[in-house]
């Protein structure tokens, strides 16, 4: 008998040791794969309950590294190897990657099967995904998650959001989370939560909450506070939207005014300083725009790698082309018509006809496509819903730079001094030895060159066709008439005013009526001040 | 009384000039109708049918050239927006012609086709009355006249002159063109008014109607010419040219220059509108492109080429250029704009007084 | 102010303060009666961007007198004429014509011209594109309205009046010539002729003898002297010789206001006038 009990004791020890070893190896194996790995395997189970439990487990564990795997799950990209290891593929690829690290599995396992997913699984997975994303170390991921939860949140996610809100530090993400939470609160039936949601809505004024607010503001809502609160929040949203629209329109108007400024600046030089009505001035703009187009084509054909820098070449080339055209014009025709403004008007109209026809024959009568270089694409998001395109910002800055340069030229250089002298008293200036005819030529060229620069700017934000000059010529003259002759300040103020007026009137009255109103305004303004906004002091006949 | 009339007529033209004028008028008014209406179609002397509305168009252009000349050549006011008045007169006539085909359009509706197309249910208030020809003609003259009067009142009162005035007239016609391009304005949008079928009961495509319109245009041109001649040879005309040359001095002599300018400006607008009203039945269409600034500028060039300050010269200029245009746009289409542009340049550089001016300079040189 | 003066002022409906107590002005006011004043310039101020061209200027003209206005450059002589004829609006003040019925500063140039104020400019301004005859026709006193001139006919009386004027200025044989092609002196005469045809009550003549030779100057002096009496003539001139030939009463302007006024000898010997012309 004593021998059997000793054999039982041995057996017991063996079993214990075996269990320990097994347990240890199991434990170590688990450590090697991690508890996450273990839970992930559960996702491949054919048993729906197991999958659900795994998902909840993942949520509880709160480790954001499983996000990629979960996304793959929802996207039918999760794979399970023959030994149960979980892999996934990147979208549109076939190489299997490690579920947690995303690294390409080496060697690629064979016989991996697709993990089947049904909608129920998806529905369960998405909130988990969202929750995990809310805690992601990446700001943009958290932001995206908050926005997504706003769309597709549920009662459970409310608590998730609250938890995330507590630890969130970035204001932008906080706001997004608050909005998502507010949405859920507004949709709930608990008045306290609704009120909390209203506070958020009122403070942030986010348009996406509008439909919920409208529902709560309806007369069917019994709770007075809630109805009122919803009304208030709606008002906040409305006024905010109006501001956004107004600023957007103003910005649009500003960018157009910049082009008008460049066009009118050139005209102010030729008309204001030289007294020449140049009906072909619009065509200088057109030449600038088409030069830009030609430069773009040249870069496409010969320097495709540097295409993003084509503008840097186009700007000086357009300026020089227009300047050259202006100088030729002045030397061959304009100089014989000084002092006869009506004749100059008609002669330059004839020139514009010829220029337009030539461009039509060379480039075709249709519009041509001038593309923004990549660094001008996109825009700056100032506020929700308000995006200021970079190309328009660039145009505005460009116009400012050119205006300052012209001012500097006229006020701070010797040439500018001579020009001003010629403007004020031509014969006297000539007596002082200033070569008036050469000044005329260069000034005309400069005015045309500035218009050419305007054409470059225009090509970046508008259509380029042979008749583009025609649409600007009338507006440019309006600017010069309104702004007065002889002063650049008037041109600047007038073009800004007209551009902005045009654009702000447009949403109310339509482009046509807007133009008519502007025209009527100009006629009436001229009544009271025939010399324009600013003018050279003294007795000058208009 | 008769002596005074005779004296006045002599002030307008010398006897020789009267003779020349009346023979020219006879030529214009008689030859073509004979050639097209009476001569047999296969005869060598038969003028082709397409020539009638074409020459009728030219007669209308002659009238509008007179209207531009009388304010530019004699009052020194260059309007680059007279096409607006021309077009408005044309639209008034067009509206009458549209109303007269009520029920005969594609949609067989009382409303014009384009209104049916736009799903409009009734005629807008400003179309009312245009089924009556006298009313339409009155509106053709009154509408543009009133517009011109109001515009001129503000412009001349504030002493807008010279190029500023010209530019503002450009803007005016441009704005109006944009307005008429809108479908919601109720004038047919960018298609305008077209598909006319008859006028005062006469079918528009019949040769006799065409000849009739031609003769009416010719007579109107003659009367317009005589009216302008009357004005320019009267004391009013002398005051007008004095205002043109030295407005301040004229004012110091006691003449309220604003009134003179306003009168001749309004007269000119009405005349141009009349031209437009006669033009539309002959070409069969009126659309907003008639208001585009380039049309008005071309009118100025007719007068510049023919002779600013010479009434006959202006008419001649209109005929010459439009004749050239008709030929060139058929023979060498892409060359026309170059020719026109070159005309603008050459005339302003070398022929400031136009052909008529160069002619009279030549005549003066030949006289010892 | 003495009681006599006050009464005299009251008789003329003048506010007592309007007359600046300059010795000459009040003496002048006493010596004239209300009915004989044809033009009354009252405290006119005109400034161009801060520069005062006329500074509170007060001046009266008797009916039928021949007044000369002199003064150094920039004294405001031409500006004064601009104000009277309506070309320039003053910042303050008024200009009255006869019995204070019309304030000229509220009227336009043509209205003032129609009231009978005529002006001859420094540089001869005639209608270059019209004949000498037509120039006179245009200036002729009569209906100036647009409609009436559309249908008007020249009457025999009008024609003879123009002939008379052309005779007076010696341009009868040039009646068919274009005014633009006349010599400078003839243009001056034509302008004077136009002024005569206009038949104004008050004639403002701005430097009439600029560019004339001695003989022409003589003729002009004769003409102006003859015109005064029925009309009131105001002459602005620099040429002292000419002034001496025609002057009865002289007004000296300086920096926009009246410096001195009186007969020629008195003015010539006035130390202030000498100082202003010759410098301190």
How would you describe the overall organization of this protein?
- The complex is a heterotrimer of chains A (542), B (368) and C (280).
- With 542 residues, chain A is mainly alpha-helical.
- Chain A has 19 helices and six strands.
- In chain A, strands 3-2-1-4 form a four-stranded antiparallel β-sheet. In chain A, strands 5-6 form a two-stranded antiparallel sheet.
- In chain A, strand 5 and strand 6 form a beta hairpin.
- The radius of gyration of chain A is 36 Å and the shape is elongated.
- The relative contact order of chain A is 0.08.
- Chain B has 368 residues and is mainly alpha-helical.
- Chain B folds into two domains: 47 residues, no CATH class; 226 residues, no CATH class.
- In chain B, 71% of the residues lie in helices and 2% in strands.
- Chain B has a two-stranded antiparallel ribbon.
- The two termini of chain B are 38 Å apart.
- Chain C has a domain of 75 residues.
- Helix content of chain C is 40%, strand content 23%.
- In chain C, helix 5 runs parallel beside helix 8.
- Chain C starts with a helix and ends with a helix.
- Chains in contact: A-B, B-C.
- At the A-B interface, helix 13, helix 18 and helix 19 of A face helix 6, helix 7, helix 12 and helix 14 of B.
Concise summary:
The complex is a heterotrimer of chains A (542), B (368) and C (280). Chain A is mostly helical and 542 residues long. Chain A has 19 helices and 6 strands.
Q: Unreliable stretches of chain A, pLDDT < 50, 5 or more residues?
A: 27-32, 536-542
Largest sheet of chain C: 6 strands, mixed
Largest beta sheet: strand ordering of chain A? 3-2-1-4
Physical arrangement of strands within the biggest beta sheet of chain C: 6-7-8-3-9-10
Largest interface: A-B, 41 and 43 residues
**Low-confidence parts of chain C lasting 5 or more residues at pLDDT below 50?**
1-32
Largest sheet of chain A: 4 strands, antiparallel
Q: What is the strand tally of chain C? A: 10
Helix content of chain C: 40-55%
Record field, number of beta strands of chain A? 6
CA-atom Rg of chain C in angstroms: 20 Å
Question: Which sequence of SSEs, written as H and E, runs from N to C of chain A?
Answer: HHHEEEEHHHHHHHHHHEEHHHHHH
CATH architectural label of the largest domain in chain A:
Orthogonal Bundle
Global mean pLDDT of chain C: 82
